[in-house]
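Attaching the record inline, Q. Sequence:
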Amino acid sequence: MITAVTPPPAAPSLEAATLKRRLISLIYEALILAAMLLAATLPMVMVTKGWAHDTARSALQSWLLLACGAFYMWQWSGTGQTLPMKTWKLRLVCADGTPVTRMRAAGRYAVALVSISAMGMGFLWAVLDRDKQFLHDRLAGTRLVSTG
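Structure, as predicted:
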């Protein structure tokens, strides 16, 4: 009996995403993030009602950093894509093309916070980087690739 040999599935493309596509996705990402942070603010404001202003503000800021981190770590280590990344056909992978782990996603988030805190210098790094990667991707061992 002759059986047909099924070829192995093609490996996903690991073509680096263009800087233009990543920056446009970043703008869309900011809109989604603003909505998510607004939604996350309400429960904390209700919990901290009556607290001293400085304490409530610090608690809210910490809560929003944790909520944002949890959101991104869940998205990046799950499908490797947020909604804007799906829209602009981008995927976050490890430098070797494997899926991002939770630990690597956490590291990327931590480095991205520093990158943003330094007046966005980590994003400007992409202009100088040989592969046009953001500094937080370079340091976290991740990269954004095109999915289409």
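Residues 62 and 79 are 26 Å apart (CA to CA). DSSP finds six helices and two strands in the chain.

More tomorrow.
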